[in-house]
Specification:
Chain lengths: 162, 118
């Protein structure tokens, strides 16, 4: 059953990802990318990583795709369907992408990934929340500082342009 | 646990099916008599001036960036809120500190006028 869901999800995600790179309309590509994000959220659920699935929906589908669509709406002339699909570097880039795929496939299949035999806590999200303010209190606060730094940096860059 | 996702799957199927059925029924029932006037692009009955693809203001992007930051904050607060009942005062103080640091960032954005529409 889980195998079946995995295959369906993989088909959905891969075909949506293929549409992202082949569609001529940049805005449509962004919408297909949202479908890819949904597929990845499904993979997280299959891996029993419910929190990551929530984060995937909340941040990637909710915020990152909004950011991507805003960025597309800010651009001009990029939607032109008459733009050629390939430029002079497509061979080089295609070769590098194929090489990257081979390397990643070799790494994921050959490395003996460490696994734990410990059982999952009954409520992983609750455990995570307790750990955020317990064992990982300092990284948790540092994450807040990091978010503020990102926000201030974004404001400074955006104000320089505008 | 896994079977609870069946509800999400049912909701997803219904959510996809409703607009699809609506469009299909409309497509099957409507008369199809196009003519050049019906097919022309219009805006409140007027011919459109210029392109329909306009450039939006860069300030939308700034709002989106700030939204991303607070969305990540929400993702951090979510597990804390789930575990809230079994945590002590120390956890509350830590979360107040977490939010206060981010509130400083929001104050900065406010003072710099990033939230003002110019």
């Amino acid at each position: 059953m889980e195998q079946l869901f995995f295959i369906l999800l993989a088909l959905l995600t891969l075909s949506a990802a293929l549409m992202v790179v082949t569609t001529r309309n940049l805005l449509h590509a962004a919408f297909w990318l949202i479908l890819v994000f949904f597929g990845i959220a499904g993979f997280f659920i299959l891996l029993h990583a419910e929190f990551l699935a929530v984060v995937q929906v909340l941040i990637y589908i909710g915020a990152i795709s909004t950011l991507i669509i805003f960025a597309i709406m800010l651009t001009r002339r990029i939607m032109d369907p008459q733009q050629p699909r390939f430029n002079s570097q497509w061979g080089l880039v295609g070769g590098l992408a194929a090489l990257l795929f081979v390397v990643l496939a070799a790494v994921t299949t050959r490395v003996a990934w460490p696994t734990t035999s410990a059982t999952l806590p009954a409520e992983p999200i609750k455990q995570l929340g307790a750990d955020f303010v317990g064992v990982y209190a300092v990284p948790f606060e540092v994450a807040s500082v990091l978010l503020v730094v990102a926000m201030i940096g974004a404001i400074i860059i955006a104000r320089e342009r505008g | 646990m896994q079977s609870q996702y069946l509800f999400i799957a049912i909701f997803a199927v219904v959510a996809l099916a409703l607009p699809a059925i609506g469009l299909a029924v409309a497509w099957a029932l409507r008369p199809k008599k196009p003519n050049p006037i019906k097919n022309s692009t219009y805006e409140c009955g007027m011919e459109t001036i210029g392109e329909t693809w306009v450039q939006f203001r860069a300030q939308y992007y700034l709002y989106a960036l700030i939204f991303v930051v607070f969305d990540v904050e929400a993702a951090f607060i979510f597990p804390w809120a789930v575990a809230y009942n079994q945590l002590g005062l120390y956890a509350l103080v830590e979360m107040i500190l977490f939010v206060a640091i981010l509130f400083g960032g929001l104050m900065y954005a406010w003072r710099k006028g990033a939230l003002e529409w110019r």
